[in-house]
Structures are given as C-alpha cells and as structure tokens.
Amino acid sequence: MRSTFCTNIKFLRTRRKRTQDDVATALGMKRSTLSGYENGIAQPNMDALVAFSEYYKVAIDSLIRADLTKLTGFELSQLERGYDVFIRGTNLRVLATTVNADNVENIELVSEKAKAGYATGFADPEYIKVLPTFHLPFLSKERKYRTFQISGDSMLPIPDRAYVTGEFVQNWETIRNKMPYIVLTLNDGVVFKILENKIKEAQKVTLHSLNELYDPYDMHISEIREVWKFVNYISPEMPEPNREINKLVDEVTRLKKTVQAIQMKMDL
C-alpha cells in the first residue's frame, strides 16, 4: 500500500496545483506529516485515509490499490466526477477504449459496415482495438469521444452517411431534453436521435427525429447499452436547404416590396 498510496496523494495534489501547505491546512495536519505520507516514510491511520479520500473525492480502495498515474485523462476526469469503481460498484459503465503512444484517448471510428459488429462487440477490448482511430485537436483530452457513421434521412438536414462524433455519457440521468445523442440500443443497433429524458419518472427516454416524417418512440433504459452526446459531424455533402425558412424569407421580401410601393404612392 505504501508506495501506491504515497504516489497517488502526491500525484493528486500536483494535478490540482496545490502545495503541501494547502493540503495540510485543509486536512488539519502538519506539513511535515503530509510530507512523510507522500515520501512513504509515515504510514497513515484510518482517520488520515478517510480525510484524504474525502478531500480528493477518491475511494480509499482506489488510493491504496490503484496506480492513478497510469490512468488516461478521460479516466481521471471520470474518477474526479465520482465514477469510481470502488464507490459506484456495478453502477459504473465500463467502456472499452484505446489510447495512443502518449496515453491519450483515441477517437475510434465506427463506419456503416462496422456498426453491426459494434452492436455485439462494443464491450470487447479486442474488437475496439481493431477499429480505425484518429484525433481532433480541438476536442478536450479530458473527455472520451467516438465517431459513428449514420444512415438514412431521419436526422436531415444532417445528411445520410455523415460521420457523427459523440462524447461518452456515463450518467444517463444527465441527458438533456431536446438535445441530439448517439444511442447504442439492444434491438436497433446504433441510432442518432433527439432525446427526451424520462428516466427518473418512467425509466425510459423518448427518441425524436429531426425529419418530421418519422414519429417519436419510447425506449426503456434496459434496451440501451451506450449513450454518446452529439459534438459535431463531418460530411462531404452540403445540408439540404430549409425550404420552410426560404418560403418565409421570400414572403417577408414580398411584403417589404409591397410596403415600399405603398410608401412611394403616398409620397406622390
């Protein structure tokens, strides 16, 4: 425990840019005592372990058993948000993922051809590691992203076969109403929809399409495997023009011309 614990508490302190004086004062201990813990000279008692756990919001088991320095930026951000395997247990949604040589999370690409395999292999690290990967420099290293190729016209003006990138959603209760998400479902595979969150009251979500020709439908959370919040999309096609807006613009232009004509007659 000693080497892992001392490494972890020093790593967490420096990651948050705190001095030993800052942390010692917050925990109500002497700086020399904290230094002893970080250097592995002193062994913390249970009260000290509890204090460190509450201060850093990391479970005691994680502090003494896991080498936090080996976690990726995404894994650390999840840990700091409270998604600790030793705290949440089976409530933690385990994600198979890949990293590059610098331990930075990849963005895996799930093409149209790969979606059928993804429906069954999404939790298999061996399947995930053979997917093509890339990086988008403007996305945060503290988040986990994956890109899916969509099909069909249900989400027009986002065109058929566009590549849609999503951010992994750990806690489904945070799904925001009327926002777009990529959802891995039990029976329908990967779908891209606008979600309506009804989890708290009914343990379900309602899925809406942007294309009004498609009716919304409900889905129980037991039928959902993963949720990814829409971030952006890439497509070689221009979106279809919004004909309704064009009609409105034309009507406003016509009315302006009519008003101008009336004003000219009144000036005469």
Summarize this entry quickly:
The protein is α+β, with helices and mostly antiparallel strands and 268 residues long.
Q: What would your notes on this structure say?
A:
The chain is elongated, with a radius of gyration of 26 Å. The protein has helices spanning 2-15, 20-27, 31-38, 46-56, 60-65, 73-80, 85-88, 115-121, 125-128, 199-202, 243-267; strands spanning 107-110, 133-134, 145-149, 163-168, 179-185, 189-198, 204-208, 217-220, 224-234. The longest helix is centred in the C-terminal third of the chain and has 25 residues, at 243-267. It has two domains: 2-70, lambda repressor-like DNA-binding domains (434 Repressor (Amino-terminal Domain), Orthogonal Bundle); 107-234, Umud Fragment, subunit A. α2 packs across α3. The protein is 37% helix and 20% strand. It has a nine-stranded mixed beta sheet with strand order 2-1-3-4-9-5-6-7-8. The N and C termini lie far apart (94 Å). A hairpin with a 3-residue loop joins β5 (179-185) and β6 (189-198). The model has no long low-confidence stretch (mean pLDDT 87). It has 268 residues and is α+β, with helices and mostly antiparallel strands.
Largest sheet: 9 strands, mixed
Radius of gyration: 26 Å
Please state how the strands of the largest beta sheet are arranged side by side: 2-1-3-4-9-5-6-7-8
**What's the total number of strands?**
9
Return the structural class: alpha+beta
Q: End-to-end span in angstroms?
A: 94 Å
Shape: elongated
- DSSP helical segment count: 11
Count the domains: 2
The CATH C-level class name of the largest domain: Mainly Beta
CATH architectural arrangement of the largest domain: Ribbon
Low-confidence stretches: none
Give the overall pLDDT as a whole number.
87
